[in-house]
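Lab notes, practical 5.
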Amino acid sequence: ARLGGTWRITNATRYNCEKDTSPNRCAYAYKGASEGQRILYDAARVELVAQGSKLLPVPKAKGDNYMTWAELRQVSTGQRFLFSNLHTVGKDKDHKVKVRQAELALAELRAHNPDALPMIAVGDWNSSRFEKPSNGPYDVYVKAGFVDPLGGAYRTHKPKRATVEH
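Output from the prediction step:
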């Protein structure tokens, strides 16, 4: 609402509870909610076809991490695509958990993409090309066929196979 115009959010529901405004005394009811993980889109340019979320496993006392997804249709062309927003745990020591979260998020995307639509993945993966032992979530997505348009190569600032100039 603060942006004005035709901006919309895919799902304003915060919690997957019968009373979706609070996680306290939650009687579970899936509503596609994803706490703070949201997808914002311009309804003048794309139309929301479907949306959902996936709660991901986290180490004890680490809060919740989600991947949220939306199938969108470009108004001008009718072209459909999937868009996702993934938030993984934040510590380097949780590398294996981040990789598992990325694998589960990718599996969820594939499950909601029977037509093999193009997919765009963004988010706070809490990982970098300088992380040890590797850039786990990034590696999972690249291995699955996603392309990094900026060509981020491991352990360097020099692009590798970039598909855009900037």
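Observations recorded by the TA: The chain has a mean pLDDT of 91. DSSP finds two helices and six strands in the chain.
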